Amino acid sequence: MIMVLHLTNRRKGEILMAIAGIGMAIGAISISVPQLAYAGLCITGLGIVSMFWR
Length: 54
Known about the structure:
- The chain crosses the membrane at residues 12-30, 36-53.
- Keywords: Membrane, Transmembrane, Transmembrane helix.
- Helix content is 76%, strand content 0%.
- With 54 residues, the chain is mainly α.
- The protein has one domain (12-52).
- Helix 1 runs antiparallel to helix 2 (34-52).
- The protein is elongated and about 40 Å long.
C-alpha cells in the first residue's frame, strides 16, 4: 500500500528547519566551534518538537 504524505507549507518548513539544524551542527563540528554545533542541535530539536506539536 502506497502512503501519500500531504506536505503543507508548515510541514515543509519544519522538515527544512530540522535538516538545516543538523547541517549547521555538522559544519560547526568540522570547524571546531562547539557553541555553534550546540545551537544547530537546538534548532533541530525545535523542528522536531514543532512537527509533533498539534
